[in-house]
Amino acid sequence: MQVLEASYGQLENDFSELSQSAQADARRAQEQIDELTAQNTQFKQISETASDILAELEKDYRSVREQAEATERTNTKLSEKLTARQSELQINRQSLNETQQLVGNLQDEIRTLVDTENRQRSELESAQGSIQSLQSIARQKTEAANSLRNRLSEARDEMQKFKLSTSWKLMAPARGLARAIRGGKTATRETTQTQAPVTTAFWKMAVGKDARTGRKFPSAAPLELVAEGGHPISDKENAIAVVIHAYYSDILEEILQALQTSTPEIRLFVTSPRHQATEVSTALSNSSFAFQQFVAENRGRDIAPFVDLLPHLKAQDVDIFLKIHTKGSHHLENGSSWRKHLFEALLENDRMQKALATFRGDRSIGILAPDEHILKLDDYVGSNKTILADLVKRLNLEQTVMKESKFVAGTMFYGRLSVFQILIDAGISANDFDPERGQIDGTLAHAIERVMGILVTNSGMRLAAIGAPSWTPDPLRNGEYQFV
Questions:
Q1: Would you give the distance in Å from CA 21 to the centre of its chain?
Q2: What is the pLDDT of residues 410-449, one digit of tens each?
Q3: Distances, alpha carbon 296 to alpha carbons 112, 150, 276, 300, in Å
Q4: 84: pLDDT strictly greater than 50
Q5: CA 227, 228, 233: angle at the middle one, nearest 5?
Q6: How wide is the angle at C-alpha 451 spanned by C-alphas 436 and 413, nearest 5°?
Q7: DSSP H or E segment with residue 271
Q8: How confident is the model at residue 278 (pLDDT cuts 50, 70, 90)?
Q9: Could you tell me which residues are beta bridge partners of residue 224?
Q10: What 8-state DSSP symbol labels residue 188?
């Protein structure tokens, strides 16, 4: 019995251990089942997400495929249009080639017409220059004839008075005796003696020189400083000299008004004929500029006063200057437009400050001229060829440079004073200039206007345009300048 109880107790212990082991195994199995259930749930979620993504991809694929098909259809249409356009372009290219050929033919015809027109214009200008010279000579001869007529009338009056005098009557027997002795020789000698003074007097008035002695024109009155004033210059090195010839006082006021906007300080050197001195003085006194006013004889237009002023400018240590004048050019229909165009090119848009900076930055520039006013000398020499050649010879310059030289029409420009030293050294003054007779060409003033480009080259410098000072300007050729 005890053995059975002991066995039963042992069995209970074994059953209890087995029961505990089974429960532990059941718990582990349940945990694995729970884990597998969770994994199965996660797999289902992943599967559902993958299905959604796959469905979305299939939708995108269909959309992309539809777009690709639409693009292909569009490309096909564009290709068809391109082919059609290329055909049209080929046709247009052929038409363009034909048009270009026609244009080329027209250009050749236009060039031929332009050459013909230029040749005719040149012949016309030459004829006009000859006519003007002949007109000038005719005026001079008329003046000389009138003077001779007056002198002859005076001589006749004197002769008549002498014939009525007692001396003439008392000498009548002696004259009769002399005629009896000399016969017909007296008339010839008297004719010869009266002709010589007439010829000399005629040429003195016609060409401005004594035919026997070669004496130049009558001496001009020297340049006279008549007034100075205005506010003194605070910085001469940064100031600019403005040289003005004021024949028309109303236009002087126009210049002074335009100078009011100038950035650099200004020193005015103003010349005028004596009859304009009072009005010029009033205009200068009413301005705020430092000025010196000079009176010059009315000859040589703006050039003679400028030449006479050069030594004074040098004594005043002038380096850079603006030369400008009250240009009238009343013989031209567009003379006023010419002047305004030059004023705008020289004075507007702070051109003075730019010009001063250009001269300081480039020592190779001798003259800075308005654009579209630089002319080829050989094409615009006018009636000045002979007097220009004489001037070049007097200045000891090379005659050959005249062919390719250029000049500034209107003689308004910015300049460097050293360029004009040669005129001072040559002793040229107002005495060398023709007396004023309304000439429009063929005078020393017109010759000096045209020689200025040669002076620049002779100084080892160059003539530049205000608009593009770093470039060498192409001068206007025959027929291209609108103001002559």
A1: 117
A2: 899 999 999 999 999 999 999 999 888 888 888 999 999 9
A3: 49, 31, 10, 10
A4: yes
A5: 170
A6: 85
A7: strand 265-272
A8: very high
A9: 295
A10: H
Rounded CA separation 331/344 (Å): 22
Q: What is the H or E stretch that residue 376 is in?
A: strand 374-376
- Distance of CA 43 to CAs 172, 352, 360, Å? 167, 90, 89
β-pairing, 374-376 vs 406-408, is antiparallel
Give the DSSP letter string of 172-188.
HHHHHHHHHHHTTHHHH
The torsion angle over the Cα atoms of residues 375, 379, 381 and 383, rounded to 10 degrees, is: -140
User: What does pTM read for this prediction?
Assistant: 0.57
Amino acid at 89: L
What is the predicted pLDDT for the residue at 285? 93
Q: What is the token pair recorded at 358?
A: 């250009």
Structure tokens at 185: 């020789």
List Cβ neighbours of 351 (8 Å cut-off, separation of 6 or more).
Answer: 345, 466
CA triple 197-202-207, angle to 5 deg? 135
Gap between the Cα atoms of 232 and 55, Å rounded: 95
How remote is the C-alpha of 246 from its chain's centroid? 22
Q: Are 346 and 325 in contact (CB under 8 A)?
A: no
Q: How far apart are CA 97 and CA 103, in angstroms?
A: 10
pLDDT tens-place string over residues 327-383:
765 544 545 778 888 888 898 878 899 999 999 999 999 999 998 899 999 899 888
Q: Which amino acid is at 127?
A: A
- Position 180 scores a pLDDT of 65
Q: State residue 382 phi and psi, 5-degree precision.
A: 60, -135
Q: What confidence tens digit (pLDDT) does each residue in 449-472 have?
A: 999 999 999 999 999 999 889 888
Among 128-142, 248-262, 343-357, where is mean pLDDT lowest? 128-142
Structure tokens at 99: 């048009």
- If you search the block for the tokens 């007396």, which residue do you land on? 435
